[in-house]
């Protein structure tokens, strides 16, 4: 049965599909298309992590982290730059440790 996806997948997925006895069609994206697909994948993986139960949370966070790593690489953002930005934002806006939920402003 044919199924449409049109989404970025991990590098070995076509091989895994063929090993399972099915066939697939895919394309190699341009750099511009790849960056856009990574942004979409980031949303997809974040939604899956948000919806995951405790048993699946680690795997979903690993997928989210993988997409973040590759997205950073594609934009030439280093881990040190990301860490510095996290520290800066934590210093200026705080973290999330106090469990504050903003209800409204007046």
Low-confidence stretches: none
Largest sheet at a glance? Answer: none
> What general form does the structure show?
extended
Helix/strand/pairing class, anyone? mainly alpha
User: Helix-strand pattern, N to C?
Assistant: HHHH
Radius of gyration: 18 Å
The helix content, as a percent range, equals 55-70%
Number of helices: 4
Describe this structure in words.
There is one protein chain. The protein is an all-alpha fold. Helices cover 60% and strands 0% of the residues. The protein contains 4 helices and no strands. The longest helix is centred in the middle third of the chain and has 21 residues, at 31-51. It starts with 12 loop residues before the first helix and ends in a 13-residue tail after the last helix.
Briefly say what this structure is:
This protein has 106 residues and is an all-alpha fold. It contains four helices and no strands. It has a domain at 13-81.
Topology:
Elements: H1 13-19, H2 31-51, H3 54-74, H4 79-93
Helix pairs in contact: 2-3
Write a concise keyword list for the protein shown above.
mainly alpha; 106 residues
